[in-house]
Design brief:
Elements: E1 7-8, E2 11-12, H1 15-18, H2 48-58, H3 80-93, E3 97-101, H4 104-115, E4 121-125, H5 130-139, E5 146-150, H6 156-165, E6 170-176, H7 188-197, E7 207-210, E8 228-232, E9 246-250, H8 252-265, H9 271-304, E10 310-312, H10 324-330, E11 337-341, H11 345-354, E12 360-361, E13 371-373, H12 385-391, E14 397-401, H13 407-419
Parallel strand pairs: 4-5, 4-6, 6-7, 7-8, 12-13
Antiparallel strand pairs: 1-2, 3-9, 8-9, 10-11, 11-14, 13-14
Helix pairs in contact: 3-9, 4-8, 11-13
Bound molecules: pyridoxal-5'-phosphate (PLP).
Pyridoxal-5'-phosphate binds next to α4 and α5.
């Protein structure tokens, strides 16, 4: 009997307590406290019969027995480091299953390709991450998939009317909340209700939610009716600006078909990346809580600053704001992403960025180090001028991702840069 259990006296341990042990036993690997990096492409079968059985289960030719997992065959199908990271990725979202990918875009594209077919309508929120935008606006239409976009202002009735007027029946819903860089929230429960109405003839029509900005700590879309939660694990989950990875999390029924397509597309994570994700998950909660606390202080400083016109930050939503009630219902905290506007357009924003000490001028987010960028000419430069206007991505808008530095140092750095504006 192993003493590495998920509970003590019948009381289930919390995710942060399980993150160092879940899915791995030291006795499996010479007592190693940390899982080794299983840097291997292939796995040796004990007997030919065992090899046959592993393939039968992997290919779905036989029903696996209670608790039987696909045996280790080849690292494009599975690998111990991937499996341990996947087990741990289920914990915060209280999900049955997870699939790890070599990038967030690999997770998103593999998921959408699993559930969409030519002639389908994809219902997607806007604005969304630039890579996702390119995939659904330029690549999926070439495969005969129609795309319908809606934003945070659409009511349930309006969304239904738009779907009824569009060509094709919905094959999947894909939303990103909060949106980047404006922090607009999309109502997960509302989308789940609409998606459910379009399920007929055995098609699952899943609602997939890109939870990169607040998850997995401060928003749990599965609890609001989502079917699949998607992550760029490059961001908070990886958290150190040193890897690219992604994940899809949900029920076994939803994730298994995605994992099967991952095997064929080869979009799985490598063992080293999977190992780094395990390392990162141990401190995920510490980092995200600290980053969130510091972001609150930075956002308050910006709000009071005479050279700042507007601060887009979830923690500043107040009763009466159209998104306040949704925020209270759907989010457990405001996270650590802030966008703010300086008067004077691009020139002023650039002066701020070029004079900013401590904080690195780079895209990406969710890392231990704070990062700043100019959405209009960087992360959102693919969007048209009209789309940028509609999204509120203005010339003077700067996006900040707050890291784990001392809050006073960050505030001093930002204050210094604002003097140059
Ligand atoms: C970064 C990001 C992605 C893409 O993830 P990669 O790991 O860069 O492939 C998708 N969605 C959101 C919200 C992101 O921030």
């Amino acid at each position: 009997m192993s003493k590495w259990k998920d509970e003590i006296d019948g009381k289930r341990l919390r995710p942060e307590s399980l993150m160092m042990t879940y899915g791995y036993r030291p006795e499996w690997s010479e007592g190693a406290a940390k899982s080794p990096i299983f840097q291997t492409s292939t796995f040796v079968f004990e007997t030919a019969e065992q090899g046959k059985r592993f393939f039968e289960v992997a290919l779905g030719k036989v029903e696996p027995e209670e608790g039987e997992k696909t045996g280790l065959i080849y690292s494009r199908l599975n690998n111990p480091d991937i499996e341990i990271a996947e087990d741990r990725l289920t914990l915060w979202d209280e999900a049955e299953d997870a699939a790890l990918f070599i990038s967030g875009m690999a997770a998103i594209s593999t998921t959408l390709l699993t559930y969409l077919r030519p002639g389908d309508l994809l219902v997607a929120s806007e604005p969304i991450y630039g890579g996702s935008h390119h995939l659904i606006e330029h690549i999926l239409p070439e495969f005969g998939i129609e795309v319908l976009r809606f934003d945070c202002r659409a009511t349930e009735a309006e969304l239904e009317t738009m779907i009824a007027a569009a060509e094709g029946e919905p094959g999947a819903f894909f939303i990103e909340t909060p949106s980047n860089p404006t922090n607009d929230l999309i109502d997960v429960a509302m989308c789940a209700r609409v998606a459910a109405k379009h399920r007929s003839g055995g098609r699952p029509v899943p609602l997939a939610v890109d939870n990169t900005f607040l998850g997995p700590l401060f928003c749990h879309p599965l609890q609001h009716g989502a079917d699949i939660v998607l992550y760029s694990a490059t961001k908070f989950i990886g958290g150190h600006s040193d890897l690219i990875a992604g994940a899809a999390v949900g029920s076994m029924e939803m994730i298994e078909p995605i994992r099967k397509l991952r095997t064929i597309l080869g979009s799985h994570a490598d063992p080293w990346t999977a190992w780094l994700i395990q390392r990162s998950l141990e401190t995920l909660q510490l980092r995200m809580i600290r980053q969130q606390e510091t972001a609150g202080r930075v956002a308050d400083f910006l709000r009071e600053h005479p050279k700042v016109d507007k601060v887009l930050y979830l923690g500043h939503l107040e009763a009466g704001h159209p998104q306040y009630e949704l925020y209270k219902r759907q989010c457990l905290g405001p996270g650590s992403m802030i966008a703010f506007e300086v008067p004077g357009g691009e020139q002023a924003a650039y002066r701020f960025l070029n004079n900013l000490p401590l904080i690195k001028l780079a895209v990406s987010l969710g890392s231990t180090e704070s990062l700043a960028e100019h959405p209009k000419t960087m992360t959102h430069s693919e969007a048209s001028a009209e789309d940028c206007d509609a999204m509120g991505v203005t010339d003077g808008l700067v996006r900040l991702s707050i890291g784990v530095e001392h809050p006073d140092d960050l505030i001093q750095a930002i204050g210094k840069a604002l003097k140059a504006v």
